[in-house]
Amino acid sequence: MVDFDLVLTGRVVRAADVIEKGFVAIRGETIEFVGEGEPPAARERHDFGEALILPGAIDSQVHSLSQKDQEGFIWSTRSAAAGGVTTIVDMPYDDGNLICDGEKLTRKATEAGEQARVDFGLYGTVHPRAGAAEIPGMIKAGAVGFKFSTFGTHPERFPRITPYILNECFAEIAKHGLIAGIHNENDEFVRTAIAKVEETGIRDYRAHALSRPAIAEALAMAEVYEIGAATGCSTHVVHCSISRGYDLCDSYRRQGFDTTVEACIHYLTLDEENDVARLGGFAKVNPPIRSRDQVEALWRHLAAGRITVVSTDHVSWSRSLKSSPDMLSNASGVPGLETMYPLLLKGLSERGLSFSHAARLLAANPARLFRIGHRKGALEIGRDADIAVFKPSAYIYRAAESGNNVVDWSPYDGIRMPYRAEATFLRGRLAFDGRNVVSEPGAGNMVRPL
Length: 450
Hints:
Blueprint: E1 4-13, E2 18-27, E3 30-36, E4 42-55, E5 57-62, H1 72-82, E6 85-90, E7 93-94, E8 97-98, H2 102-115, E9 119-124, H3 135-141, E10 145-149, H4 163-176, E11 179-183, H5 187-200, H6 206-211, H7 214-231, E12 234-237, H8 243-254, E13 259-264, H9 265-269, H10 272-279, H11 292-304, E14 309-311, H12 340-350, H13 356-369, E15 387-396, H14 399-402, E16 416-426, E17 429-432
Parallel strand pairs: 1-4, 5-6, 6-9, 9-10, 10-11, 11-12, 12-13, 13-14
Antiparallel strand pairs: 1-2, 2-3, 4-15, 7-8, 15-16, 16-17
Helix pairs in contact: 2-3, 4-7, 7-8
């Protein structure tokens, strides 16, 4: 008798444990049984041996549309599927289109639904002139959270939201139980620091970190966590490069406030003195990549459970926007959807940490963060059958060789990965077969918070 549509066997990695000889049984789009030992009968079965069977990742921070006519959901979700990412959460700062009202979010959702190869959620934001007025409309349209910046990158595309307006917005968001996500750099401090660096004449890789020092992050984080405490809003810092930031988040959490914090994979992998010095603009991100000492401090926070989620802050800028010898003139951001899972598995393996950290940081925790845990984020009965399989097989990563990226560069080019993506399943259907992305545009669905 055939009990299930699909059964996968291997080392099943969950947030709380690893089942060494485990199986996941799927009926339709849903996980129906997870167990150990002899698997049940199924119409289709894949025996992955010693490979890791993990929950599909939820990448909490993706910029699919930051450069007009460059990447789009066609390519970002292709990279995602090849990297074991089954849901992306896309940021609202699209080139020429700030997603700051319900109509814009609805239009973006329609566009993404036609292109996406994996599932997706959407952040909303606000225009400084509108304040909190458009937040209810974006919630009705399905926003999974809201993103604000304490630094003004651009007055229209990526505006600074002042503390007064943040307080207004946080109070409105708190009524609906969603998160306020924050880009954490103090505007006044950074602008003064940039001016000081320009006076020195330093233009090489050193200029970036000098212009955005660690204290600028800490000041911004303390400010927004206080606003969250005052309004009762769940407050999430979307990228933290400094150890002190995780201490701040943990302190507020211990006081009973719902504070969370995100570590991008580049902060856990690259350092300034080696990688930024070598890569220049191709390693420029905001906030900047820090020293190797800070990298290892972040790993200690990860091991202690003080990092909520790991993400990519993925954006695929064209080479022309990343290759200037004047570090400050380069665009900020790097691609990472294809590499996040293998890089995290590499780091965990090298430090002797359980792979269950990956299941928590890339799936269970982001599912809770965006209030989509009723469907996503775990290899558990009743959840969507979103699954990533990684086999122990060492290889040197080259972005240009995979064919799954719109750009031919990556700051991770040349890194030896110990685990290779063997398969990705989206709601029980094969999305990546170990060589090719087989999920077609339009296969992805929009996810909405419960």
